Amino acid sequence: MNIQQLKCFVEVSRTLNFTKAGQNLFISQTAVTNHIKNLEEILGFALFERTKKNVTLTQKGHIFLKSALKLLEAGQECYQTIQYLNHENVGRLKIGYLKGIEHCLMIDIIQNFYQSYPQIDIQLYRESRNQLEDMLRNHEVDCIFTASIGQYNQHFSEEMSSCFIHSYPFVVVLNKNHPLAYKEKVDYFEIKNQTHVIMDSSDPHFISHDLDEILMNIAIHDDTAILADFIKDYYAYQKYLCFLPMKDFHQSFDIHIVWHQDHKNKALYSFLENIEQKKNEL
After folding, report:
1. Pick from 88, 120, 153: which residue ends a domain?
2. Pick the residue with more confidence: 282 or 37?
3. Which end of the chain is more exposed for a tag (fewer CB within 10 A), N or C?
4. Collapsing DSSP states into helix, strand and coil, what is residue 244?
């Protein structure tokens, strides 16, 4: 039994999907399957029940999951302690981020951190807002990049801390053949009744949309959307779309990072310090 087998088991238990587990661990589905198979042979019992459509934990798998999580946590703590005693800043950092914000400043922040601490293992999880909050509450991730409009933190408990990262204005996204595409700016009331998607995460029922699907529909049809300004970096659609600022529309799309106040991950301390340093340099 080794750490990689346990990592695969825990990730498949979380996602109930061998393909997605491999993507999250940056290995192939075949590698995940082989690790699970070898682990089951060592343990002497099946961990999952597999059908063509579903993957579920067996009863013994549920019981073993608790021990596997404790083993991984103990192993990580031991590893961090060794590196700390050797005066090295290493470890693992699990970062969740809201679907659709891939092109915001978040990428620059993580890349800048990696350049400073290449020895830290960074794992990324792309999920919906509710899933991210659940993962953070359950300590499945160390921090999350999420968003809101206006005052933040109305949906998180007092156990959480947050840091404002950046504010983006909104733009109207139109097909270049749209009747309003010739304008320099668009009044919200001109497109209110024909806009089907508004990236408004202040709504507690906010759904993280698939931006590729949204932009594809706009490129083909006369649909419109109100999205954060960083959406312009979706270069694949610039040939077909235009992105227009809005008149007298003062709301903004605000990016925040959120974490547990009582976290004990040294890598997260370094990450937060690195963010503050980068913000001071801007």
Report:
1. 88
2. 37
3. C
4. strand
